[in-house]
Structures are given as structure tokens and as C-alpha cells.
């Protein structure tokens, strides 16, 4: 099979992975039906794991106990686990390709260090106080240069507090979901189906929006 | 699945102090970074989204010497790789404040971190201007867009309006023409101001029609944009055009909000500098599109970067 990642990219990816500390496991959830990108997602994870021994992945069916355990309902979904096997609520729905490839790489490096959130103290203090479930969906397209900022902010927020789940949602792969939320510009962020905004807000404003939805 | 962009994953570990903090990773900022290293200084580039900045939104660049035609994204990557080859570090965050008083300057990032430096070079470029009409805020994200590559997919086989008739409007229209069924370009002047070559390319798509001497009066719809109301600037007459989406490219505004009260800006928000790119504050420079100047091009931004670093190196690091 032809490689997904070109050589000039793998060279740079290796360099980025040289910053990893512990091992990171990715759980890929796929389904036989209606999943155009499941096999591509698997190939991507396989190629990444070949580049760096600290990366491994497991493949699970959407219809499985593991999917229930990690509350995964759509395929392909990727869940990252820390070296201690901890789930931090960080999710990718759809392939993190294009500009989102960088988001995946950064999350992997961050997870290898225990998923310590890279946010300001002020933001962390606010997010720590959340004591009810928060669901952040960041709708993206892989051709959107402003989207990784929103995805990474959301993922870092999830790393702070167990109550927060943060999803990157590739809008073209999940058109029903995009339609449901009326997505026509990305990044579009939907928090608890209550607060919606469009654009890559600076961290402080993003956190304020999350707090509004709590 | 054709491309994989590493983007901000290429960030460097952040140190507390650098000789020169360059805010903005477009052609001006990147060039300044390269010249700084060559002058024996330690620079850092702070970029909020993507190496190359607005260049990424250009389908093809045909006036950067040495390349008859190169995609904006590719030129961005080549420039950033050039800087990295010279060990210019990049970090990715939005600058929310600058401290420009005193010998030691600082920039404050939205992630709470602070970078101290002797010199600051502002290379923040510009952002798209909004329409400022009724319905714009309401329908932002519901049919009004400012980024063709980001949002074009949502308008496959639909009829859209593009507002503006300059280079960026027609360049983005060309990108959109691959997805949408029909484009109506609405221009406030009696003719387009975009380059003739670009006009010809767009006309060749056969999907475009033009409405001249007209501006947007308001936008209407329900859950999504349904129509744009257009006012003729001569007669004042308002007509409605049913569309599924509106893409706005009516010029730029400088990204200088965070500099208000810190350095001198002109009435439009552009940063005033002297011939050496130095602002009203010593050791604070402004280069590229954010600066008050006549010609805003990749090549002039790059030139500004070189001039600023030369001056800074001689005046603030000559011991």
C-alpha cells in the first residue's frame, strides 16, 4: 500500500516526536458501515506508530464494550491515552489530516508528558471549578488554517478537568452533525448545545465562553 | 487525503528572554528572523495561526522574485523552513499585550506566558474588514464567511455572492469557483480593481457575474442566509439577490489593536514608523502590512524586516 505520509513530512514528524517522554496509546474506533475514512485513519495511526516506538494504537469496533466505556458513538473516532492509560476527554471525530495533523501531533507529545494543559493559571483556575459535564465540539475543515488553535484550546481545557470532553469534528465527514448545528463557517464551537461561536478566539475569551455554558 | 500540515506542532520550547521578539510569522516577520540570526541575535517569532500568515490565502503568488508562480501555501512553508534551517524558533499564541516602556520590553501571550526582549518587531499584518451592515453579526457562521478555503466546501453547487472586486476578492472567488455553481461579485466601484490576469482567469470559469457600483445594504435569512440586499451607490435603489452564502473581501484592517496607546498609530490604525521601521517608541519596530505605507506586498514586507533588523542590530546590540 502506498504510504499516506510523504517522506518530507515523516522526517519532521520524527523530530517532533523526539520530544515525547512516556508512551501514548491511541484508540481508534471504526465501523464497517458508512465509514469512508476509517481505513485511512487506521493507516495514519499505523504509519505514526512506525515512526516512533512510544506510539501504539488499538482498533475497536463502534459496536463494542470499549466504545461504550469511552462513550464513542461515531467512526472514525480517535481517543488518546496518557502513559498511565488515562483518558483526558480529548477526542478526534474524523481524520485529523490537513491542518489538523499538527493538532494531533501536539496532543500526542502533550499526552506523552502526562497531558499537562498548556493554559494560563487564570484559565486553569476557572476550569478547575467546573463540576458538571461539559461537551465542547469544535467543527473544523482540514483546509482551515485557523482551526487548530480552537481545537488545541478545547483539548487543553479538557485536560484540566475530568468533566470536560472536547471533540474535534471534521465537518465534511460528519455532515449530519454539521447540518444539525448549522455549520457553514469554521471553526465553529458548540458548548453543551447552548453556547455557539465562530472563530479562533484567544484563550481567555474561549474559556469565558465555556464558563457561560456551565 | 492529500496534505498534512504540521503547523504549530513545530513550536520551540519557550525561553524567558530573547534579543528580538517578532510578533507575526508572515513574510516580514520570517525575513526579520533570518536577518536577526545572521546579525548574531537571538530572535523568536510569535505566530497566532499559521506560518506565512495571509500568504496562505493566496492561490498563486506571481510576483515574488525567483518564482514565476508559486502557491501561497508553498511559499509560506518554504519561508518558514528557511528560517528554521537558521534555527529561528517559532512559538504559537496570540499576543494580548506588549510592555514597551523601559529598556527591557515584554510581550504577553494569550496562554499566560510572557516573553522578555530588548527589541520588539511588530509584523502582525492585517485582517479582513467587516461589512458593518445589518445582519452581518447575526449571519456570521450561518452563511457569511471570510475564508474561502475554510468554508467553501459548505457551499458546493450553491449560488454565492462575493463582496469586493480587488485582488483578494477575485483570488478567493477563483478558489470558490471550483466548488460553487454560481458567483455574483458585488463591487462598489464601476470596475474591478484586481489584476487583469486574475480577472481573465475568473471569467474563464464561466460561473461569475458582476454587479458594479453597488454595496451591501443588509443581509437577510432564517436559519441561514437567504438573500443579500444591494444598494446602488448612484441611484440609492435597493435590490434583493437570493443567495445561499456571502463571502466578504472588502479590504483589510491592520492588526494593531493591542498597540493602542503604546505606539503612534494613524487614523486608520496603521503603525507610524520612520525610514528604519522604528515606531514612536525606541526599540519597537513595525514592518509589513501593519505599517503605514504605500505598497503592501510580500516583497515590501520582507524588505521592511531586513531594514528593521539592520537598524536594531546597530543601535541596540553594538557592544
Compile the SSE list and pairings.
The complex is a heterodimer of chains A (214) and B (319).
Chain A: H1 7-17, E1 24-30, H2 38-51, E2 55-61, H3 65-69, E3 77-81, E4 87-93, H4 100-112, H5 121-128, E5 134-140, H6 147-160, E6 164-170, H7 175-180, E7 188-191, E8 195-198, H8 203-213
Parallel strand pairs in A: 1-2, 4-6, 5-6
Antiparallel strand pairs in A: 1-3, 3-4, 5-7, 7-8
Chain B: E1 17-23, H1 27-38, E2 43-47, E3 60-61, E4 70-71, H2 72-85, E5 90-92, E6 95-99, E7 105-109, E8 114-122, E9 126-128, H3 136-139, E10 144-145, H4 148-151, E11 159-163, H5 167-176, E12 182-186, H6 196-204, E13 208-211, E14 214-221, E15 225-232, E16 238-242, E17 245-248, E18 252-254, E19 284-286, H7 298-316
Parallel strand pairs in B: 1-2, 1-8, 2-5, 8-19, 10-17, 11-12, 11-17, 12-13
Antiparallel strand pairs in B: 3-4, 6-7, 7-8, 9-18, 14-15, 15-16
Query: What's the helical proportion of residues of chain B?
Result: 10-25%
Domains counted in the coordinates of chain A: how many? 2
Report the average pLDDT across residues of chain B.
95
The fourth-level CATH homologous superfamily of the largest domain in chain A is Glutaredoxin
Largest sheet entry of chain B: 7 strands, mixed
Shape-level CATH architecture of the largest domain in chain A: 3-Layer(aba) Sandwich
The CATH class designation of the largest domain in chain A is Alpha Beta
Beta fraction of chain A? 15-25%
Helices and strands of chain A: which structural class?
alpha/beta
CATH architecture label of the largest domain in chain B: 3-Layer(bba) Sandwich
How are strands sequenced across the largest beta sheet of chain A? 2-1-3-4-6-5-7-8
Helix-and-strand structural type of chain B: alpha/beta
Distance between the termini of chain B: 53 Å
Low-confidence stretches of chain A: none
Low-confidence stretches of chain B: none
Helix content of chain A: 25-40%
Alpha carbon gap, first and last residue of chain A:
47 Å
- The CATH topology of the largest domain in chain A turns out to be Glutaredoxin
Per the CATH scheme, the topology name of the largest domain in chain B is FAD/NAD(P)-binding domain
Amino acid at each position: 500500500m502506498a504510504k499516506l505520509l510523504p517522506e518530507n513530512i515523516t522526517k519532521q514528524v520524527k523530530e517532533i516526536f523526539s520530544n515525547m517522554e512516556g508512551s501514548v496509546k491511541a484508540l481508534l474506533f471504526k465501523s464497517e458501515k458508512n465509514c469512508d475514512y476509517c481505513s485511512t485513519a487506521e493507516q495514519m495511526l499505523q504509519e505514526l506508530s512506525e515512526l516512533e516506538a512510544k506510539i501504539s494504537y488499538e482498533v475497536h469496533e463502534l459496536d463494542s464494550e470499549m466504545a461504550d466505556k469511552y462513550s464513542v458513538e461515531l467512526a472514525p473516532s480517535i481517543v488518546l491515552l496518557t502513559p498511565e492509560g488515562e483518558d483526558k476527554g480529548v477526542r478526534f471525530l474524523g481524520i485529523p489530516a490537513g491542518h489538523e495533523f499538527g493538532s494531533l501531533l501536539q496532543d500526542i507529545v502533550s499526552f506523552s508528558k502526562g497531558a499537562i494543559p498548556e493554559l494560563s493559571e487564570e484559565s486553569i483556575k476557572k476550569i478547575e471549578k467546573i463540576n458538571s459535564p461539559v461537551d465542547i465540539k469544535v467543527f473544523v475543515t482540514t483546509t482551515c488554517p485557523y482551526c487548530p488553535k480552537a481545537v488545541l484550546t478545547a483539548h487543553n481545557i479538557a485536560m484540566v478537568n475530568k468533566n470536560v470532553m472536547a471533540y474535534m469534528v471534521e465537518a465534511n465527514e460528519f455532515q449530519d452533525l454539521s447540518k444539525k448545528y448549522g455549520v457553514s463557517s469554521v471553526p465553529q464551537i458548540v458548548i453543551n448545545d447552548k453556547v455557539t461561536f465562530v472563530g479562533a478566539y484567544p484563550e481567555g475569551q474561549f474559556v469565558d465562553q465555556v464558563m457561560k455554558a456551565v | 487525503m492529500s496534505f498534512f500540515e504540521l503547523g504549530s506542532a513545530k513550536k520551540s520550547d519557550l525561553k524567558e528572554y530573547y534579543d528580538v521578539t517578532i510578533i507575526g510569522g508572515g513574510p516580514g516577520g520570517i525575513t526579520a528572523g533570518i536577518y536577526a540570526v545572521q546579525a548574531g541575535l537571538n530572535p523568536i517569532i510569535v505566530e497566532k495561526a499559521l506560518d506565512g500568515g495571509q500568504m496562505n490565502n493566496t492561490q498563486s503568488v506571481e510576483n515574488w522574485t525567483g518564482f514565476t508562480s508559486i502557491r501561497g501555501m508553498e511559499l509560506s512553508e518554504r519561508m518558514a523552513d528557511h528560517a528554521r534551517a537558521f534555527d529561528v524558533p517559532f512559538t504559537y499564541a496570540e499576543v494580548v499585550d506588549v510592555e514597551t516602556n523601559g529598556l527591557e520590553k515584554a510581550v504577553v501571550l494569550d496562554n499566560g506566558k510572557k516573553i522578555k526582549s530588548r527589541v520588539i518587531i511588530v509584523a502582525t499584518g492585517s485582517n479582513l474588514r467587516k461589512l458593518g451592515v445589518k445582519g452581518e453579526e447575526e449571519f456570521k457562521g450561518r452563511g457569511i464567511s471570510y475564508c474561502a478555503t475554510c468554508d467553501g466546501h459548505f457551499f458546493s453547487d450553491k449560488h454565492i455572492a462575493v463582496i469586493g472586486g480587488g485582488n483578494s476578492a477575485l483570488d478567493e472567488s477563483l478558489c470558490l469557483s471550483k466548488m460553487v455553481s454560481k458567483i455574483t461579485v458585488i463591487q462598489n466601484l464601476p470596475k474591478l480593481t484586481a489584476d487583469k490576469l486574475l480577472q481573465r482567469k475568473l471569467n474563464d470559469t464561466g460561473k461569475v457575474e458582476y454587479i458594479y457600483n453597488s454595496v451591501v445594504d443588509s443581509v437577510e435569512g432564517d436559519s441561514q442566509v437567504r438573500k443579500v440586499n444591494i444598494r446602488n451607490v448612484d441611484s440609492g435603489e435597493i435590490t434583493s439577490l437570493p443567495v445561499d452564502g456571502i463571502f466578504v473581501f472588502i479590504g483589510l484592517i491592520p492588526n494593531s489593536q493591542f498597540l493602542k496607546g503604546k505606539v503612534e498609530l494613524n487614523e486608520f490604525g496603521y503603525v507610524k514608523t520612520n525610514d528604519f521601521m522604528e515606531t514612536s517608541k525606541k526599540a519597537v519596530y513595525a514592518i509589513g502590512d501593519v505599517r503605514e505605507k504605500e505598497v503592501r506586498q510580500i516583497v515590501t514586507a520582507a524588505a521592511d524586516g531586513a531594514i528593521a533588523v539592520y537598524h536594531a542590530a546597530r543601535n541596540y546590540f553594538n557592544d
